[in-house]
Amino acid sequence: MNRLYILALFILVNVVTFAQSQELQTKLMMARKMIYNKEEGKAAALLREILTQDSTYKEVYFVLADIYVDHDKIQALSDLYRKASNNLGQETPEFIFLYGNTLYELGEMPMAIVQYDLFLKNQFVKSDLRNKAQKMKQKCQSSIDIMKKTVPFNPVNMGVAVNSTSDEYLPSFSVDESVMFITRKLPLGVNNASGKDEFNEDFFYCLKNNDGQWMKAENLGKSINTSNNEGAHCLSADGKTFVFTACNRNDSYGTCDLYISYFKYGKWTVPINMGAVVNSIWWDSQPSLSPDGNTLYFASNRKGTTGGTDIWYSQKDSYERWATPVNMGKVINSDEPEISPFIHPDGKTFYFASKGHPGVGGYDIFLSRLDTDGKWSTPVNIGYPINTLKDDMSLIVSPQGNIAYFSSERKEGLGGLDIYSFELYPEARPQKTYWVKGHIYDEVTGKSLQGEVELSVLSSTSEVFRGKADVDGNFMVCLSAVGEMAVYVNHKGYLFYSGTFIAGEGSESQPFTKEIPLTPIAKGAAMTLRNIYFETDSYSLKSASDFELNKLVKFLKSHAGVSIQINGHTDNQGSEEHNKILSENRAKTVQDYLLKNGIVATRMTSVGLGYSQPNANNTSSEGRALNRRTEIVITSIK
Length: 638
What we know:
The longest helix has 22 residues, at 127-148. By secondary structure, the chain is α+β, with helices and mostly antiparallel strands. Strands 6, 7, 8, 9 and 10 form a five-stranded antiparallel sheet that branches. A four-stranded antiparallel sheet has the order 1-21-20-19, with no helix packed on it. The chain has four domains: 2-148, Tetratricopeptide repeat domain (Serine Threonine Protein Phosphatase 5, Tetratricopeptide repeat), CATH 1.25.40.10; 156-428, TolB, C-terminal domain (Neuraminidase); 433-520, Sandwich (Immunoglobulin-like), CATH 2.60.40; 523-638, CATH 3.30.1330.60.
């Protein structure tokens, strides 16, 4: 109701009031004294008594309206403004406008439109209020239109493992949905000075057991939770990075800042402020990380904001540093507040809450999609009754795209705000995503390696992920692309790894997993180049091979002392002589490619081995495909 309160003050300082009787002025002074002494109930009763004696006493309306606003009594406020507009509407038409606003807040859209039309008919209405009234009328009509077309919505409480008698809200998940973080509002007791209940917001987490059920929420611990409030947060796709909002800390740049923590060696690191590049002297909150962890979306009221609160984003540069945040622009941000951004793991579907785009009422949830040109589409209201007359926000959607989560206070809940899930109707769903887990290790010692990982679509060589494994050698990637993918892994002191897999392999509940051994660089070390392809029964390279061959060029240039032998292998289809010649020509073709790209001839030899050294059974097509391969062997190191 802050908007109504501000408008009331606007009118109070812009209208002329006439002297009332001494008796009523004295009663008004008494009422003001009661308000000062925090006796608002007695003051409201006295003010209502004054209005029964003089229903045209403007100042009394405003003082009583302030009481109703402070105590969130919207129905009483609406009744008050109805009385004011009936008695003073011709003289002070702004009362009609305020009455229309309260009807909007109550969801009485047709009645509100009647009041706005009545207000707009007055020729003395100032242009700024006229524009506001026209905009409010449009909002009412949008609400009516949206509510006519209901969407499927059947929310289910997530149960006692997640929810409690306290408030739970703002859930976030790892991409495999094995861990969930929530914010819980814990009661601290009554403040002796103010007499009001006090609370502290802390982070809790839930893990899934082997049966796919959530286990009881546990406090995240003192490494992150403090005696102050910790609020909105997000978890990276791999569950290893945690970005959250904290307010009024000693190292804060503004009222609320963004902090970051990493999961290393089995525990969360001490959070650090994300710095003056990301944070401002204003309010920075409600983070959401892109699936690759390289873009951070958040809400802020910093300089450059157009609607009170806008959604901004920051991207990492090639040195893993966060860049200066950029406003998401007029497509997403309106001239009213936008908050609670959520970028889906598909990296292309963006959910957020807005008061400015056409909605049902208050904050509504919207979605926008990234097109092939890298532009966000015009936001679409997610629909009624997901959106209601009240504020709706903080929606997140599962990686599969079919389940959404939100917080709500409902009769069937366990107490206060609870976290609910529901099946999201198809038109509002993002692109389905798949996730891949990998573990990188030393082939000889078994030691985990923090290798660099790159995934590309094999047919187009377009990169879909570039990142680094954690200290335990693990990585997790969320993919929206479907089809054959190439995976490359590098680590200093090792031969690079190349492999392929089909995006979408594995079930919805289990990822495609990949164990990736890296071979230390040493004389005799061998590596199979799995993404080099030739035309059938030919030594002509397919264009899809260029990407991997360029990787080999880069490796040899960065290891100038390494010399190699290129081995060509075939399956057993055809004669031994034919396959021997074919494998020789294929190995020579790879050697020629390297030569043309700057690798000197003295560092390379090539050999054709035909089908003499199979590494799989030649009785199946799958086995034969594995046998048709190109290998490199290190022959010397200088």
